[in-house]
Amino acid sequence: MLETLRSIIQEVNEAKDLNASLEIIVRRVQKAMDTRVCSVYLLDHNLGRYVLMASKGLDASSVGKASLSPEEGLVGLVAQRAEPVNLEHASSHPRYFYIPETREEEFESFLGVPVIHHREVLGVLVVQQAEVRAFDAEEEAFLITLSAQLAGIIANEEARGAVTGFSPTGLKTTDASFEGVPGAPGVVIAEAITVFPPADLSVIPKRKVDDIDREIAFFNECLNAVRIDISELKMKIKSQLRPEERELFDAYLHMLSDNALGAEVIARIKEGSWAQGALAKVARDHVRNLEHMDDDYLRERATDIKDLCSRVLFYLQDKEQKNRKYPKRCILVSEELSAAMLAEVPKENLVGIVSSKGSGHSHVAILARAMSIPAAMGIQDLPFSELDGKEIIVDGYNGRVYSNPSDELRERFLEIVREEEQLSEGLESIKDLPCETLDGHRVELWVNTGLITDVLRSKERGAEGIGLFRTEVPFLLRDRFPTEREQTEIYRQQLEAFHPKTVTMRTLDIGGDKPLPYFPIKEENPFLGWRGIRVSMDHPEIFIGQVRAMIKASAGLDNLQIMLPMISNMQEVDDSVRLIKRAYQEIVEEGMTVVKPSIGVMIEIPALMYQVEALSRRVDFISVGSNDLSQYLLAIDRNNPRVSGIYSTMHPSVLRVLKQIADDVHRVNMRLSICGEMAGNPGAAVLLMAMGYDVLSMNATSLLKVKSVVRNVTFQQARELLDKVLAQDDTDSVKALVDIELYNAGVDRLLRTSSNS
Ligand code: PEP
Ligand code: MG
After folding, report:
1. Which structural domains are found in the chain, ordered by start?
2. Helices 540-553 and 570-589, interaxial angle, to 10°?
3. Is a pLDDT exceeding 70 seen at residue 587?
């Protein structure tokens, strides 16, 4: 059973388009279940009907024509109930609806299962038999399992069609929209440029070429380059090779010859595929065949083919990359954008960012905010390879991407762009005014930084200090650990730029979704694993080096405070403080005059909220990391787009916890700040101020937005709103209440939607 399922899925995965996929499904299922009929109906949103898209057994002329509304027939019943319907006597069911052109009157037993993707019924998979008998539990289970696996593939194929402007049934559509999470606020309309991770055969999309001869010549050029590499390699290490190993090199060269792999790839290019796609397909076919062999030797050859083809792919991509011309304004799109990919695009051309994986807390999103570039993250089912060269809209406020936009949709977003311009002109005027409410309550607005560009921008926007310098960002952009001296330089830039204002440097917070390229951490459960201070305490040499660099960088400036991430117990605090004191002592003994920095702890782990008093005996300040605190309270991976819809820092429990922390910290007379993303959400900022947070630290882009909102309300209003909010049962009511209050206070719509928490 499992083998049949796997092989059907594999064949469907290889299909060239939606229709081919559906044909495979009906043919294979009908055979595997030995039924008279297997059909697939898909929902066409334009028509609001489930259309018969493929069938083995029903009259072929009805395919593409016969359709049912959700209120009609047994197919409609399956869709309406979103659960299987299994009937031995279909024609006697009250919902039985006969469509004459299908000629289904001869079939009595009926089993229909819904095809559900992200809670939406995309279609219905049906099998029918002539005789009167119910399908047994095993048959039902088979169809349900298959349908669950097919749903993603069908959704992807549908999305591909939507991007090119067609519904599943071939009707013209516009405004294909894809949902994700906000990465960086703002809206942009421009051409998409898709990028892929280098030399990865598994992610190469299908793409057509027009100039086949040129593509073949290009492929041959790259193939030749690999041939030369292999021959050179063979010559270089010839003397160290045993005869059988030398033969292996000859075998490689043979595989690359014109009548082996190369010929197969060229045959596919002649069918119209681009070279990368043709190569990837040939490689996949060979690897799959070889991996299924019983013979060890042959299975090993699968690795060789993969290696050789990756080498050719590397050349194909490298040469293409070098010739790549970026449009004047481009939106970078990828399955998983990395900082390195971002760096490839000339800064002046980059106006938007879209990534299928990741979230608003991924470091690409952090960079996007630093650069003030709208970004949408975790966009599910995005057919990113299809978007290349097409005009798309990125809505960074709501984390959405639109392709194939209609004139009305384009106009609506152009209007938002105009509104944004006006808004930022208006905000400029308050940059030197204090952040205080109408009745004079003062709250400090600090900034979160990672790169020096953030520092410069945030100073222009009147930031009153750095509440979180994510030191891992400069670490992430390198190919080895920076030396103590290099770190000192980086830290000095931040301290100098803000002097005499305070700069809070957080010690290295790697792990989770932030593995360093040169220090990979592979874990089943990275967010619950080796992260932040846990790594630092296991590698005191890295920790001490970093702290030494920070303290040295502060010489003569004296505006440094050090903050510890991911603390879960007092032992970690004691150990860290001891090491910081030791580093300080060493530097003093080396003859430098430096001031001992304040030390603080982030509350990011729920356990710590019950230990505020214990913390107060050990450190000087506390800052709440609401991004992680929320993820651990809610047990929702902040980086997983599948569950991003239920991750919210406006969850009533999160708000109550934040309030309790504020009360406890003030009881021990400590200053309290918050440096999670919610501080930059104007609505949330008002609530945090009402709870008593003294410092709100946020990304530079949000500074003036938050200030503008705080200056529009009274402290009294904020307190009353907080009381009402804390009495709510769910996130949506909290958000609605805050929105109404800000609306009543005359706050601009864009400021109200500037939420990326
Ligand atoms: C947080 O967790 O709220 C935080 C500020 O840290 P980071 O987002 O870098 O994990
Ligand atoms: Mg954190």
Report:
1. 2-164 (3.30.450.40), 176-196+335-422 (3.50.30.10), 201-323 (1.10.274.10), 431-754 (3.20.20.60)
2. 50
3. yes
